[in-house]
Amino acid sequence: MKAIAITRPGAPEVLQTVERERPVAGAGECLIRVRAAGINRPDVLQRKGVYPPPPGASELPGLEVAGEIVDGDSAALSAAGFKLGDAVCALVAGGGYAEYCVAHSGACLPLPAGWSLPEAASLPETCFTVWANVFERARLQPGETLLVHGGASGIGVTAIQLAKAHGASVLVTVGSDAKAAACRTLGADHVINHREQDFVAQAKAATDGRGVDVILDMVAGEYVARDIQALADDGRIAIIAVQGGTDARFDAGQLLRRRLSITGSTLRPRSAAFKAGIARALRQQAWPWLEKGLVRPVIHAVFKAEDAAQAHAVMESNQHIGKIVLTW
After folding, report:
1. What digits encode the pLDDT tens for the residues 55-98?
2. Which segments of the chain have a pLDDT < 70?
């Protein structure tokens, strides 16, 4: 099969088309003929040599795919509600930049009605991440307020739409007018340009001084102290990346006096059983929102797989809105 490999750590041009042996599905797994694969920040970090795949995962980049099931453990497929030939999207720990990819059957989700395979390839990484952190760890409730940093990112556009479908109000931070307009179109109630406005002051103003209930933070660093200022009493912060650094200094007394919570997680190294649990929750609760049109695809660009280097360059420019996808 053809695949896109990281030939050495470095800039986007180290991504090259190579020939690899087709992988074989083992117990509990299925083999997917990949038609499209989403690009994510961890792919960029892996390409640079600072985010290796977990033990046992493919060394090829790619954490989400969409295509058809062509082989696999029939019992595991049946238990997950699938059969050979089904169109699915799947969360994988690696190997997505290839014509064939092995996935745990429990981490597969059906193609939502009305969605194309490239559109479906944009779903798993962001949907699993948002559901696990915003809905399960931070326990966002209908009627509460969510603040999303990086509202125009792949994670951001997913978080906006899932939270709105759930009945929450949504504030986002963005870095440009174009991104602000896109977030408003997706349903964001308040949009804060962090280059021009203080998100703490804006969050307070938007909530009549109360503060927000949940913050989805992919920045960390010095943002954490400011997040705490923007929270309502009993508020929760879910940290999913550290683009602003790992050194976070804040007034711990605020956590005690105001009953605040800070949580965080990484998804890639989690067990197949954990991911299957998230997939079940998404299929039951979120997939109906997708099929009703409450959540819709936001694709910035689609590239042929052999142009993966160009796709990575677009991601690193930080000018994209939504997801970037590769197709075979």
Report:
1. 999 999 999 999 999 999 999 999 999 999 999 999 999 999 99
2. none
Count of positions (residues) in the chain: 328
Are the C-beta atoms of residues 12 and 316 closer than 8 Å to each other?
yes
Q: What percent of the chain has pLDDT over 70?
A: 100
Amino acid at 211: G
Strands 108-110 and 100-104 come out as unpaired
Token digits of residue 248: 């976070």
Task: Provide the token pair at 69.
Answer: 């099931």
Structure tokens at 319: 């000018």
Residue 266 confidence (pLDDT): 92
Cα–Cα distances in angstroms (integers) from residue 82 to residues 86, 139, 279, in the given order: 7, 30, 13
Residues 6+ apart with CB under 8 A from 304: 326, 327, 328
Cα end-to-end distance, the chain, whole Å: 11
DSSP string, 185-245: HTT-SEEEETTTS-HHHHHHHHTTTS-EEEEEES--TTHHHHHHHHEEEEEEEEE---TT-
Give the SS3 label for residue 180. helix
Cβ-count burial 70-97 (b if 16+ within 10 Å, e if not): ebbbeebbeebebeeebbbbbbbbbbbb
Tell me the one-letter amino acid at 276: A
